[in-house]
Design goal:
- This protein is about 30% helix and about 20% strand.
- It is built from 21 helices and 30 strands.
- Helix 3 crosses helix 4, helix 5 runs antiparallel to helix 6 and helix 11 crosses helix 12.
- The longest helix is centred in the C-terminal third of the chain and has 18 residues.
- The protein is globular.
- The structure holds 5'-O-(acetylsulfamoyl)adenosine.
- 5'-O-(acetylsulfamoyl)adenosine binds next to helix 12, strand 24 and strand 25.
Length: about 675
């Protein structure tokens, strides 16, 4: 494959994010948006921001009343009495699945809700009426298996409609789902099931990805063997047809559980604050956190951002390429698009099958109008050249989006020119698992775009950049902590089972008043936000969030490993990749011993956490560079991993000579 000129010119290097400092191109909203979008001008945006500043609760209350179908209306908007445990709309009752499905049946029941394409080319459509019936059947099946409101259900599925059906069915009966990404492996799955105390796992025999079958059921069996005592049943969807073993006392087939169930399932009316889902995410400790989201506030956030940021229209075909295992797949696959009654596209497989034109083939085939993906995917596609997208008719596209990591301006320009054909605004959306929905993002009919910037906070979102003392930084281009100064409806409510960790992680500074995002950011002279990346030990590998400590725990769980430290290294396509520094028990391996151990450890991490956590490189030392108090000097390790020369004085280290050993060329 001949490399694209963009690659040769080094335009893809994430370091070019630094070039964003010089970025001065702006793209005003095109005519088809500026006079027509929901928010049509910066004046209108300012008016909304002003409304929220003047009457914060009223601003959200008015929107919650108009966007949500309530069973019982709420009278209290925000309760901050137990801050930072906030509640929103707490005396209201509703059902999220009713808001996503039932509300459309009379007006658009025959509209396609899910347009699914499997990796092997199989296509399936479900209308809103059909989806409603499937969700109801499956909800009844869960109830028949003893699932009650408030019970936790783990979903470990491929990207097939049943994943969304399972999530919606949980919402319908008030059960709390916890989706575990199908790319995670045994240990990750086991930890999440145990932490949530789940009663049921919903999985599939296997899923198709990259021309292979991902053995989900087999991984599940391994996770459940000798652990996870709370699990009563495993529901297994027949998808890939690979051979599996069913434990007759525990396992049931999806198609058998629904066979005799009614297509009507009375919704469970829950209160606004009833947990809708848990989603485990990596932080700076070894143990992932169960981010707990509530029902009404989250639903409101998904609807408003679908309207504001994607300017979603009744006839849109919306494709968010994220897996339902990530928050993006929750808010912009399983909930937001359905709550807005549009058609959503779901694709099961890898973007490279049968070749890197697959995304564009899907866009053409299904006439996608709004396309939302990650910068890492765009960079991978740039690498394969312009000829591929040019083979497809992309004229149905009207809006593009990105999420997951900063997009380097040159990748933005390529996306804009080659995919959007200069016609489509790009919404660069900054948000997190914890924030539930977009926080900082352009409004396509109002905000002039700057490549690489997520632009300005959405109306009602009190985002700011502050210094060590919590004081707002007004100096343009000076970096600081990205914080949110007021609670917002779709925010996380707590970390499952650990309110102390919730407080200590997100509200540790500034008197517990501000939500600390963990990102660094700067604001330019026009007030545009530029995200500078994490300030903690969290990596983004291909847009997937991973904790360095998680990978370290997996490494030290190997019998040959005594100590390990993991850092990120910039990577052209993936944004970052994993580099591990390892101290083994016994003598430091060299030559073929080192090669063999490296292979073994890479496999080990893939098997423990999942292939996304697989180290790109492993370096061995007799020790790790530590301060005299025993703290690992990660900064030095990051420099070594990048192949930089260490200029700083290392003589204050406990063991300065180790730096040279670890940096030895190999
Ligand atoms: C949605 C999601 C959150 C972290 C966040 C950032 C990074 C996300 C952007 C971004 C720059 C963006 N949730 N991030 N979006 N950085 N520009 N538009 O990714 O919980 O998995 O990760 O991702 O560092 O803190 S997440």
């Amino acid at each position: 494959m001949k490399a694209d000129p963009a690659t040769e010119a080094g335009l893809l290097k994430p370091e070019n994010i630094e070039s964003s400092l010089q970025e001065n191109r702006t793209f005003p909203p095109p005519a088809q948006f500026s006079g027509h979008a929901r928010i049509q001008s910066m004046e209108e945006y300012e008016t909304l921001c002003h409304e929220a500043e003047q009457d914060y609760e009223g601003f959200w209350a008015r929107r919650a009343r108009s966007e949500i179908e309530w069973r019982q209306p709420f009278s209290r908007t925000l309760n901050s009495e137990h801050a930072p445990q906030y509640s929103w709309f707490e005396d209201g009752t509703l059902n999220v699945s009713v808001n996503c499905l039932d509300r459309h049946l009379a007006t658009r029941g025959n509209r396609v809700a899910i347009l699914f394409e499997g990796e092997q080319g199989d296509v399936r459509q479900l209308t809103y009426c059909e989806l409603h019936a499937e969700v109801s059947r499956f909800g009844n099946a869960l109830k028949a298996l003893g699932v009650c409101s408030g019970d936790r259900v783990v979903i470990y599925m491929p990207m097939v409609p049943e994943a969304v059906i399972a999530m919606q069915a949980c919402a319908r009966i008030g059960a709390i789902h916890s989706v575990v990404f199908g790319g995670f492996s045994v240990e990750s799955l086991k930890d999440r099931i145990e932490d949530a105390g789940a009663k049921i796992v919903i999985t599939a025999d296997g899923g198709h990805r990259g021309g292979k079958i991902i053995p989900l059921k087999a991984t599940c069996d391994e996770a459940l063997a000798h652990s996870c005592p709370t699990i009563e049943h495993v529901i297994v969807l027949k998808r890939a047809g690979n051979k599996i073993t069913m434990a007759p006392w525990r396992d049931v087939w999806w198609h058998e559980t629904i066979a005799s169930q009614s297509p009507e399932c009375a919704p469970e009316w829950i209160s606004s604050e009833h947990p809708l889902f848990l989603l485990y995410t990596s932080g700076s400790t070894g143990k992932p956190k169960g981010i707990q989201h509530a029902s009404a506030g989250y639903l409101l956030g998904t609807i408003l951002t679908m309207k504001w940021v994607f300017d979603i229209r009744a006839d849109d075909v919306f494709w968010c390429t994220a897996d339902v295992g990530w928050v993006t797949g929750h808010s912009y696959v399983a909930y937001g698009p359905l709550a807005c009654g549009v058609t959503l596209v779901m694709y099961e497989g890898a973007p490279s099958v049968p070749d890197y034109g697959r995304f564009w083939a899907v866009c053409e085939r299904h006439k996608v109008s709004v396309f939302y993906t990650a910068p890492t995917a765009i960079r991978a596609l740039i690498k394969h050249g312009e000829a591929l997208p040019k083979r497809y008719d992309l004229s149905s596209l009207r809006l593009l989006g990105t999420v997951g990591e900063p997009i380097n301006p040159e990748a933005w320009m390529w996306y804009h020119r080659v995919i959007g054909q200069g016609r489509c605004p790009i919404v660069d959306t900054w948000w997190q698992t914890e924030t539930g929905v977009h926080m900082i993002a352009p409004l396509p009919g109002a905000t002039p775009l700057k490549p690489g910037s997520c632009t300005k906070p959405l109306p009602g979102i009190a985002a700011d950049v502050v210094d060590e003392h919590g004081v707002s930084i007004t100096q343009p281009d000076q970096g600081g902590y990205l914080v949110i100064k007021k609670p917002w409806p779709s925010m996380l409510r707590t970390i499952w089972g650990d309110a102390t960790r919730y407080r200590d992680t997100y509200f540790p500074k500034f008197g517990g008043r501000y939500y600390l995002s963990g990102d660094g950011a700067r604001r330019d002279a026009d007030g545009y936000f530029w995200i500078m990346g994490r300030v903690d030990d969290v990596l983004k590998v291909s847009g997937h969030r991973l904790g360095t400590m998680e990978i370290e725990s997996a490494l030290v769980a190997h019998q040959k490993v005594a100590e390990a430290a993991v850092v990120g290294r910039p990577d052209e396509v993936r944004g970052e990749c994993v580099v591990a520094f390892v101290v083994v028990r016994g003598a430091r391996p060299t030559g073929t011993d080192a090669q063999e151990l490296t292979h073994e450890l890479k496999e080990w991490v893939s098997h423990q956490i999942g292939p996304i956590a697989r180290p790109e490189e492993i370096r061995y030392g007799d020790n790790l560079p530590k301060t005299r108090s025993g703290k690992i000097m990660r900064r030095l390790l990051r420099a070594i991993a990048r192949g930089q020369t260490i200029e700083e004085d290392v003589s204050t280290l406990e063991n300065p000579e180790i730096v040279r050993q670890l940096a030895e060329p190999r």
